Amino acid sequence: MAPAWEAQELQQEADAVPLSNPTDDVPFKSKVTVVGSGNWGSVASKLIASNTLRLTSFHDEVRMWVYEETLPSGEKLTDVINRTNENVKYLPGIKLGKNVVADPDLVNAVRDANMLVFVTPHQFMEGICRRLVGKIREDVEAISLIKGMEVKMEGPCMISTLISDQLGLNCCVLMGANIANEIAVEKFSEATVGYRENREIAEKWVQLFSTPYFIVTAVQDVEGVELCGTLKNVVAIAAGFVDGLEMGNNTKAAIMRIGLREMKAFSKLLFSSVKDSTFFESCGVADLITTCLGGRNRKVAEAFAKNGGKRSFDELEAEMLQGQKLQGVSTAREVYEVLSHRGWLELFPLFATVHEICIGHLLPSAIVEHSERKPKFSLLELEGSA
Questions:
Q1: How far apart are CA 150 and CA 157, in angstroms?
Q2: Is there a catalytic annotation at residue 232?
């Protein structure tokens, strides 16, 4: 396998297209900043840092913006990361790479970068983008690893669109069956890069993230890839309810199938350009499976159901996730707002029921009772026309 990988890497370098015009004397090198330093942000930094050291088209150093925290020891998190080369709070026991530099100053972290990797909880992105307006290079390319959406008066806004609109740049996405702790210890995984028009930029991102244990492919479907990564967290909440109530594997498989059906229908109703084939990429069915089997949304939803819905998700999140954030609960609320506003609630019984359970309007057992309702499939067949 090693010779084939080395040959692939050499070909990638030969085919790499710089994001700016090089001078005659000094070849242009892309510089990367990771905006975010949680569990997945730290793993992304590790992946990227291993490649910037190997590939001559990148600067060695990878900046990682860290939301500063004081640890129980009294030390600043950034100081500990830079001293130990380890994110002791969100990814303990894993070396990030000596070329990863933690920076608590957001503007300083992005100042020289022409490739920005966004990987923070989606509810913080609007504020982060506001802080970056006018502070980044004109030739910047971005990629979002963020699951979620913003719901505005005019309708739902994907995070990649939010980044593009607020910062005036092109933004790809990367999603997939990616439980961060497994990738951190280099277990085999896959991911999908979604891009709009520029295949060369997509391949640059593929090059930056790919390793022998992390295989990345590109598809021309930003909205499809991003919605898969977003909506699967809602289905994972449903799967957690099933686990907490000990309903068994058959029930869980049924909920996952219904969830995938609703993911596809919702995506195509919002964006007629979404491709059916995207749901068979890593970002689609594979991500849904792994998140419903082992993700944090499933885990906390299981605890919620075991407690009969008597302990809030906020309480359970604080107790169980050591500062990490759930995405499924907030995404379920955002999806519900879209469904309610557009009169689609009856079309998506699983999505609607997850939110109503999360806010205490229904008991966890309703996940099966209400998801059994037959949606109006005659309307779902009009996916591409809405």
A1: 5
A2: yes
Neighbours of 79 (CB within 10 A): 14
For the chain, give the mean pLDDT.
Answer: 90
Contact assessment for residue 306 and residue 364, using Cβ atoms and an 8 Å cutoff: no
Q: Which two tokens stand for residue 314?
A: 């906020």
Can you tell me which residue has the tokens 């993700």?
A: 295
Half-sphere exposure of 126 (CA within 13 A, CB side): 8
- Return the closest-CA partner of residue 327 out of 250, 265, 236, 245: 236
Instruction: Tell me the CA end-to-end span of the chain in Å, nearest whole number.
Output: 47
| High-pLDDT (> 90) share of the chain, % | 81
Residue (of 92, 88, 124) closest to 106 by Cα position: 124
Out of 232, 264, 268, 299, which one is annotated catalytic?
232
Confidence of residue 236 (pLDDT cuts 50, 70, 90): very high
Q: What is the pLDDT of residues 35-64, one digit of tens each?
A: 999 999 999 999 999 999 999 999 999 999
Burial of 265: CB neighbours in 10 Å, binned 0-12, 13-18, 19+: buried
Residue 137 has pLDDT above 70, yes or no: yes
pLDDT tens for each residue of 249-297: 999 999 999 999 999 999 999 999 999 999 999 999 999 999 999 889 9
* 115 and 169 Cβ atoms separated by less than 8 Å: no
CB–CB of 100/53 below 8 Å?
no
Strands 141-144 and 115-118, bridge-based pairing: parallel
Residue 187 CB neighbours (<10 A): 11
Q: DSSP characters for 223-261?
A: HHHHHHHHHHHHHHHHHHHHHHTT--HHHHHHHHHHHHH
Alpha helices in the chain (DSSP H): 2-15, 39-54, 77-84, 106-110, 125-132, 159-167, 180-184, 199-209, 222-244, 249-270, 287-294, 296-306, 313-320, 328-342, 349-358, 366-371, 377-380
CA distance 365 to 242: 8
Q: Between helices 199-209 and 39-54, what is the axis angle to 10°?
A: 100
Question: Residue 323 is encoded by which pair of tokens?
Answer: 């500062």
> Model's pTM, two decimal places?
0.86
Q: Name beta bridge partners: 217.
A: 192
CA distance 229 to 217: 15
